[in-house]
Amino acid sequence: MSKHAVITRALRAGGLALGAAILATATVAAPLPAVGPADAANAATAAAPRNGLLAEYLFTQTTGTAVANTAGGSSTVGAASVVNGTDALWTGSSLKFTGGAKTSTADWVRLPDGLLSGKQSATITVETKFDASMLTTFNFLWNIGSDSTTSYFFASMRDKARTAITTSSNGGEANARATASLAADRWYSVTTVLDGAADTLAFYIDGVKVGQIATTLEPSSITTQTVDAIGRSPWPDPFYKGEVSAFRAYGRALSGAEVAAVSDADAGLHASTFTTSAQAALDAIQPIAMTDSSITLPTSAAAGLSWSAPSAGLALGASGTTLQAVQPAPGSPAASGTVTATATVRGVSASKQIPVSIAPAVEAADDYGYLLVHFIEDSAGYAEKIYLDVSRGDDPEQWDPLNGGKPILASQLGTTGIRDPYLTYNPETQTYYIIATDLRVFGGDGGSGSCTSWCYWTKSASTKLLVWESTDLVAWGAPRSIDVSLDATGVEVAELGMAWAPEATWVDDYYPDGRGAFVLYWASNVYQNAEHSGSSYNRVLWGATTDFTQDTYAYGGPFVDPGANAIDTTMIQDGGTTYRITKDNGLGKGIYMESTTAARWWESGTSWTQLQTKIGAAWAGGNAGGVEGPAVFKSHSEDRWYLYVDVIPSTGYRPMTTTDLDAGWTQLTDPGFFMAPSTKHGGVISVTKAQYDTVRASDAATAVSTDLGSVELAQGSTAGALADALPETADVRLAYDRGTASRPVTWNAASVDLTTPGTYAVTGVVGTYGANLDTWTGAGGSTAWNAPDRVLSSSRAVTVGATVVVTAAPSGPAFTVQAETRCVAGKAVLVSQVSNTGDAAAGISVVTPYGSKTVQVAAGKTAGQTFSTRLASIPGGDVVATSAAGSKTAAFAARACN
Q1: Of the residues 370, 404, 461, 498, which has the fewest C-beta atoms closer than 10 A?
Q2: 3-state class of 21 per DSSP?
Q3: Contact (CB, 8 A) for 415 and 460
Q4: pLDDT per residue over 411-449, tens digit each?
Q5: φ, ψ for residue 737, nearest 5 deg
Q6: SS3 at position 879
Q7: Integer distance in angstroms from the first to the last C-alpha of the chain?
Q8: Chain segment 366-397, per-residue pLDDT in tens
Q9: Where is average pLDDT lowest: 27-36, 382-391, 538-547, 582-591?
Q10: Average pLDDT over residues 2-15
Q11: Side-chain half-sphere of 114: how many Cα atoms within 13 Å?
Q12: d(CA 391, CA 675)
């Protein structure tokens, strides 16, 4: 285990004793005095707006089950009622929700029917705190709808809190999400704004917008509103567990300022608790271990954190959310320092110094960092493209999206959709490959008749896989495809349904002669005839290839076939054991793992031992079928493995971990884990420090300067001279406040006419992730999946410019000529010398008289050359040198020698 990995895990995951030993020279200061309001009761400085208020339920009573609507004004909405309520559930400032199974007699609040019926827009805001169990359990904080699981409008505190609306069940939910999980047992103002005029759904926490999505659905889209509720879901989800002190519903979209006013008003109900929450947030911050020269500083689910006062040797980035340092040289002792954290909870603040250790840099060839390829599920905005994330330093539990979280690659081939990408490497050719499913779910061809969407796709969609390749993990070429139902000559070898979820494992000695190849595996239905009639099921098949081209591909046959639907196989090897992790969709096993010690593990007849089933089900509320798309990788710095499981339909990856593969996987609930929402079904590779630095240096959205100046060339210069004259690199501003870097520039100089003097503007594309082909358009600018003449392009390329000045050729000869007679060994000899001093004089011809005739003594001389000629002694005359730029003459006289 490397030293920097030990420091990272120990300090981030709670190794305080080790942290104290490493940071013996750092001083941990006592908490600084709170800088929030002297009187926490003054936290509420604004009143909740009344305009458009339909219902206001303040849970401040101490008895009863009826809760009055205090909205006043013209509201005709009636009281709410506490179902299964008792007086013991009232605290005087809130109502307790006990939680429990849907079949239990837990309490919940029934809101009046039709609360938002007919409304184009609405705002719902709730003051609540929730039990920690809600973070890992499906729940509805509130719901507008009925007991239908098709049409509903709700908010949930699970995982990363969200609000959503749908009229086509969970697969059609338009979700606006927080980017980070909230903290249990802390009061929050949770607000949903559905603006039908703007076609947006926004989500606010404590008056701050944390998520927004486009949707054409409106409150009136929920046509049946007969079980409007607080704390109850139409699904078989458990009842909500926590407390609620206020619920308001507006028949309009509140502005951001108005949402903040509601939060401020409700904060006053619990202001006395916020100092404790702020201090608790500070106490939860572990000593900071820098294994990279720039790190993203910790955030808090319970409080807003700001940073200040870095000690000598440390600096805050411009955004204030990154910490930067010059790492000690490899092999040197770690350095140390401090930085001050300030936690603020709804206007109340506290501060504390946090110790920092700066680990020495690692060597360029050392394993350091990870790269994740994935796609994003987004029913409201087409997102089925290729995305890349990079680990924060060497931490496999924290990830930063590259390219501003935007796609890096798109496909104009086949269905134009990309799902289930995987990243792999051929060590013989040092080439990286991304392979992926050719499937567009959103806005593509969904079939017709009685078999549509997944029925149609799995039966009749593309049997091709999409392929990209790169040698540096930054610049990726255009996509190509390989048809897994055909052999190398194009002959069909299997009647397959859609090919999906491909992965590949490199085998060093796949061929008998010792050459290596990829064993490629993917899921498909297998049919008996070309019509694909009759029933089938998904099984995992295999083939072999060296480069994911049709020319080297050979079909193998079944790899995982339990007699029922099996998909999404991923694999990892440790020592002589191969571990196979598959999603079962037919036998109730969910994601399950097997192992074998067979050297040729892909061949039929291999014996596999089942080790674990229902892996990751805890992330889906115990539903084994609620997770898929596993991605497995090993920490390269310790004996620990990670398995990311994709919580469907749109939550994305959540982590499992183990230190013993044979013992199986356990849920990783480290609060420090960070991955952007909806990061789905991909693969992870380890990179070296040099590769990590290249990845980070290529993650830029802007150039430091878009004008790289001018260059001057003489008329008649070559294209090579122009290429040499233009700047090779441009400085770019790096993402995540990591400073600047120099990246190569590819210039388009087609506009420059080197034969004609003038001033020409040229444009260059800087070598960043944004330079890749991430979008396409068809004829007439169409983006329809089947538009003809689709052409790839880059929508996020960083471009720079320069000016090329072509100067006119000189008007006179660009050379000199000299001639004289000298005595050499007693004889008179003519010595002539021509010096070419410029490009324009290329191709000089030199003649000299010799008796009664002239003799050409040199021709074709090029720029910059100097030469001499000698002839026998003759009477005086002229040496003449001529070029396209003119001619020059040098006279010489006869000379007598003794």
Answers
A1: 404
A2: helix
A3: no
A4: 999 999 999 999 999 999 999 999 999 999 999 999 999
A5: 60, 35
A6: strand
A7: 90
A8: 999 999 999 998 777 789 999 999 999 999 99
A9: 27-36
A10: 37
A11: 5
A12: 9
Closest by Cα among 81, 87, 60 to 229? 81
Give every CB contact of residue 7 below 8 A, 6+ residues apart in sequence. Answer: 18, 22, 289, 291, 334, 357, 359
| 707-714 and 799-807 strand pairing | parallel
Residue type (1 letter), 419: R
Distances in whole angstroms, Cα of residue 489 to Cα of each of 486, 527, 550, 552: 8, 21, 8, 10
Half-sphere exposure of 87 (CA within 13 A, CB side): 3
What letter does residue 454 receive in the DSSP assignment? H
Over the stretch 191-230, which tens digit does the pLDDT of each residue have? 999 999 999 999 999 999 999 999 999 999 999 999 999 9
pTM of the model: 0.80
For 586, residues 6+ apart whose C-beta sits below 8 A from its C-beta are 537, 562, 563, 564, 565, 566
Q: Is residue 873 very low, low, confident or very high in pLDDT (cuts 50, 70, 90)?
A: low
pLDDT value of residue 672: 82
**pLDDT-derived band of residue 25, with 50, 70 and 90 as boundaries?**
very low
pLDDT the model gives residue 621:
84
793 CB neighbour count, 10 Å cutoff:
12
Question: How far is 603 from 625, CA to CA, in rounded Å?
Answer: 28
pLDDT per position as a tens digit, 761-775: 999 999 999 999 999
| CA dist., res. 352 & res. 343, Å (int) | 9
Do residues 215 and 165 touch, judged by C-beta distance below 8 A? yes
C-beta of residue 224 within 8 angstroms of C-beta of residue 118 = no
Name the token pair of 56: 């206001």
Residue ranges and CATH numbers for the domains of the chain are 3-38+285-358 (no CATH), 52-251 (2.60.120.200), 367-461+556-694 (no CATH), 701-807 (no CATH), 815-892 (2.60.40)
Sorted by sequence, the CB contacts under 8 Å of residue 598 that are 6+ apart come out as 578, 606, 607
Number of residues written out for the chain: 898
Q: Which of 111-125, 357-371, 705-719, 802-816 has the lowest mean pLDDT?
A: 802-816
What percent of the chain is modeled with pLDDT above 90?
Answer: 79
706-735 confidence digits (pLDDT tens): 999 999 999 999 999 999 999 999 999 999
Taking the C-alpha atoms of residue 315 and residue 292, their distance in angstroms, rounded to an integer, is: 13
From CA 415, how far away is CA 437, in angstroms rounded?
10
In the prediction, which pLDDT does 170 show? 87
C-alpha span between 464 and 477 (Å, rounded): 18
Beta strands in 224-332, from DSSP E residues, in sequence order? 229-230, 239-250, 288-290, 294-296, 304-308, 314-316, 322-325
**DSSP code, position 275:** H
Q: How far is CA 209 from the centre of its chain?
A: 22
Distance CA 124, CA 215 (A): 17
pLDDT reading at 788 higher than 90: yes
What does 547-587 look like in DSSP terms, one character per residue? SSSGGG-EEEEEEE--SS-EEEEEEEEETTEEEEEEEESSS
Q: pLDDT per residue over 83-93, tens digit each?
A: 999 999 999 99
Q: DSSP of 332-348, one letter per residue?
A: SPPEEEEEEEEEEETTE
- Residue 266 and residue 289: Cα distance in Å, rounded? 38
User: Half-sphere exposure of 683 toward its Cβ, with a 13 Å CA cutoff?
Assistant: 23
Query: Which residue, chain included where needed, has tokens 């990783």?
Result: 668
Distance CA 526, CA 827 (A): 98
Q: Which residues pair with 437 in a beta bridge?
A: 419, 465
Cis upstream peptide for 649 (omega within 30°): yes
Out of 143-152, 264-273, 565-574, least confident range: 264-273
Q: Sign (positive/negative) of CA torsion 267, 272, 275, 280? A: negative
Task: Work out whether strand 538-545 and strand 554-560 pair parallel, antiparallel, or are unpaired.
Answer: antiparallel
